[in-house]
């Protein structure tokens, strides 16, 4: 009956890749003591009556390893951008110089580094949970096909495929976490 069952492993792979991409984005927003334009991505500025990403109101540059500058295009938005950065919780004190906002990145202390590694661990665990949810969906599809009449050998084959894909993605999450924690702890 359903001997020609084909599990869409590409769809499962795409969903797992999405979880991995989300993890990379969350890791990029973690401050490691080095300047990075991506750490400003989550910040929204109240520009022209609506929340606008900070990279759409000015040019973000990293002129030195411990400095980020934002060249705000509209003079009337400079104070709003500064306020958004102060309220973002990044722990950075913006300095104004005309339409350029300078963000000196302070050195992280040992306690803050440990806190950031814990946050990175929480982000990684969220990614693992998302990947396991995709695995569960894939296994459910295989079980449904089993009920529809695929052979036990086919069922085992597809379950192994889903599990191998999951193991590969979990290993990628663990490797990304290890690299990020090493980067955070690097003085």
Automatic annotation (TrEMBL):
UniProt keyword Oxidoreductase present: no
Ranges for domain Ribosome recycling factor: 23-185
Keyword set includes Cytoplasm: yes
Keywords: Cytoplasm, Protein biosynthesis
Family annotation (CDD domains): RRF (cd00520)
Predominant subcellular localization, coarse grouping: cytoplasm
Family of this protein: Belongs to the RRF family.
Record's protein name: Ribosome-recycling factor
């Amino acid at each position: 009956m359903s001997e020609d069952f084909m599990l869409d492993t590409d769809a499962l792979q795409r969903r797992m890749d999405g979880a991995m991409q989300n993890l990379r984005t969350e890791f990029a927003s973690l401050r490691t003591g080095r300047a990075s334009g991506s750490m400003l991505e989550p910040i929204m500025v109240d520009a022209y009556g609506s929340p606008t990403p900070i990279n759409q109101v000015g040019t973000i540059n990293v002129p030195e390893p411990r400095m980020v500058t934002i060249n705000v295009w509209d003079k009337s938005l400079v104070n709003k951008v500064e306020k958004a950065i102060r309220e973002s919780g990044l722990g950075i004190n913006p300095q104004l110089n005309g339409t350029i906002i300078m963000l000196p990145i302070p050195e992280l202390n040992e306690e803050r580094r440990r806190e950031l590694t814990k946050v990175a661990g929480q982000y990684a665990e969220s990614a693992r949970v998302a990947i396991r949810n995709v695995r569960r969906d894939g296994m459910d599809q295989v079980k449904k096909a089993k009920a529809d009449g695929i052979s036990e050998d086919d069922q085992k084959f597809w379950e192994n495929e889903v599990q191998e894909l999951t193991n590969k993605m979990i290993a990628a999450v663990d490797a990304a976490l290890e690299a990020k924690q090493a980067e955070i702890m690097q003085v």
